[in-house]
Each structure stands twice: as C-alpha cells, then as structure tokens.
Specification:
With 438 residues, this protein is mostly helical. 66% of the residues lie in helices and 4% in strands.
Length: 438
Amino acid sequence: MTAVWTTPLPHLRVDRLPLLPLIATVLLLAAPIQTAGADTSANVTPADLASCALVLTALAQVLHRRRRPLTPAAALVLGLPAVAIAVATATATDPTAALTGFVRYLQVFVLVPTAVVLLLRTPNHFRIITTALIALAVTQGATGVYQYATNTGASYMGEDIRAVGTFGATDVMGMATVVSYGLLAALALALRPPENAHPCLRPCAIATAAALTIPLALSFSRGAWIATLAAAFAMIFLTGRRQAVRALTTLTAASVILVGGFGIGSEMISKRLTSITEVTEAPDRSVTDRYTMWTAAVSMWQERPATGVGIKGFPAHRDAHASIALSSGSDTAGAGQTFHKQALLSPHNMYLLILSEQGLIGLTAFLAGWAAILLAALRRLTKSSTTAADCGLAAVGLATWQTVDFLYADIGGPSTVLTGIILGLAAWWALAPSEERA
C-alpha cells in the first residue's frame, strides 16, 4: 500500500523545499490533539501554526520572483470572499467576537488557498500534496478501525465504537473528512495513473481506496458518506463510459464483501443510513437538532437579509430563533474523553451558516468563488491532455466533495485547515497558467 505515495514521486529537490510547510500542515494532523474544551474551533493546533508558515513562505516566494503572482481571474476568485468577510465583520452585532471569526475565515478561505496556488508549480507538486493526504488518511483510518475493534472510540448508541481517529469525541467529523480526502486522492490515481508510473501504482491505489472505505463506514458520518459517493461517482463518470462500468462493478463488489460478507458494522450502518430520511416519523435526536438549527439560521437571515447577524453571531442569536425542539446539546464521550454536553453552536450547514452570519452579500461571494473554481476545474479536465489527468480528477473530486459536504457540515475543529488546502488544490488546477499544469 505504501507504493501509492512513493512510487510516482521523485526525490525531494530544491524546487520542492517551499512545499515543506504545506506538507507539514497536512501531516501534523496525524498527531493526537488535546482540546481545551468542547469548542474545538477556538483551539490553535500545530497544523494551524504550520499554515502560518505556509502563508509566509508563499509571500516570500512572491517577493523573490518579483512578478505578478496570480492571474487576474485567480486574484478575483480567491479575493472575493475577503470582501464579504470584511463586510460581515464591520456590520456584526458583536464586532469583538466577529474579529476572531474574521481571522479564521480569512485563513481558511483566502490565505491558505492562495498560498497553495502560489507554491504549486507542476503536477508533481500537486501529487506530493495528495500523497500526503493519502498518508494522513491511512494513519487516521487505521486508528479509527482499531478504535472500533477495541471499543476505544467515541460513544455511539451506548458503545464506544465510533471511529474518530486522533480527533476525539468532540470532533467526530475530523477523521471522516480526512479519510474521504485520502480515498478520493487514491481513487484519482487508480482511475488515471500518471504517465510512466510504476505498474504497481494502480493496484496499490485501488487497494488503498478500498481499504479507506472501512474507516469511513465506521465513522458513522452520514454527510461524509453522501459527499464521498457523489464525488466518487463524478470522478468515475468523467473517465468514460467503459471504465465507469468497470469501476462501478468493482465498487459494488467491494461494498458487498466489506459490509455484507464480513458484516463490518452492517446493522448500525443500515440504521444510520435510514435515519437520513426519518425527519417526520421518529427521527433521531441529531436529525431533529439539525433541522431545527437550519430553521433558526434562515430566521436570522430574514431578520438581517443583506449582511446577516455577523460572523460568530449564530450562537448568540440561536435561542431567539430556534424552536423548543432544539436540545441543550449533543452527548459526547469516549475516545479518551469523559462525558459532557457539547453545545450546538452552528447549523451544521456551511451555506446556511454563511447566510445567517453574512447575509446575501457573503453567500453570493462564497458561492460565486466556489462555483467558478469547480466549473473551471471541470472544464480544464475535459479539455486537457492525459498528462496530468490524475491531478484534474483529484481536483474535481475534492471540490465536489467539499461542496456537497457543506450541506451537512461547516467549518470547526482541527481538520478545518485542510478545507483551505483542498480549495487551494482545486483552484490551482482550475486557475493556474496552462504551462504550470502541463
């Protein structure tokens, strides 16, 4: 399996030294993270510190080259969210609280993606970063499977079996997110391996992608399941009808063997899938809370439609807009943490979070930028040669996963910094000059 990230990549050369902060930002998320409390979004992790070094390295590269760092289109798309963030901060009902949110949003949606675009110069650079994502996914996924097998994971349905990796019970989406990224990066190598790649690359990539479905299933994360299936199907159909049929047949067979044959969490996975549609008839508590918070977010936007209640304003306005169906918080325990109630501080929908806190101005800016990246990446993939098709597939797949997952999740937790890196990878493929992607 290790051949997946070592075979196609040459030894690290001098021109790749600037990538070290970017690689470190990804790999540092493999280390156990001690959170200061239930609100993990307030903790600064080693990966966040590495992302600061990443931004400074990109700035140094720009000053060293002494030429226009970005194309006009890239500057517009990457800079558009900064305007919306600034407006939402300036008009917030609590400017002090909004200032911390301003820094976080600027880091994840502007600075880190821009730094990634500036530092990547060739498809091999892109592959180095996706290789780091695969390595991180394998590490966290193996930890999650061990937690399920030994009853040392997060609490789920009365048992400590939920696979969460090193992220702990307060960030149950962390491992699922990381594993999804790695699975899609491996799938891109399996579907379109680089030219002159080692013959073992494709089978190793297939094996890695298949193996990562196990910790993804054991994460019991419905949003990650849906986003991964959507992204994987998009990638498969982009490779052509004949290969799509073969890939879907293999995927179906692997699912039957892993879940049906070995019975890996099959009963609980089935119940978890069923709960997605159980909104009116005996829904579980998490579904009720989520839809209640979605309604509250819409109500906040209706109160201030243009600019919203301000960044970090959702928790303060939640109770005034939520119905009595909302619980006091979600129960978290296991994975080395004691039982406590985790406050529900966001609607668990990135689009509704932006709409409620930044209004139509913010949502329009973010949606325009993300749509431009995804459509440009898709256009370049369909019109490009096969030289770097694996990079294009990975970029489209990762961007698709993020846009779908944002329907069920928002930023928060240690893995948030990876969102900026994923957007940066997709933006590089979509907006970088053609000579860099050749």
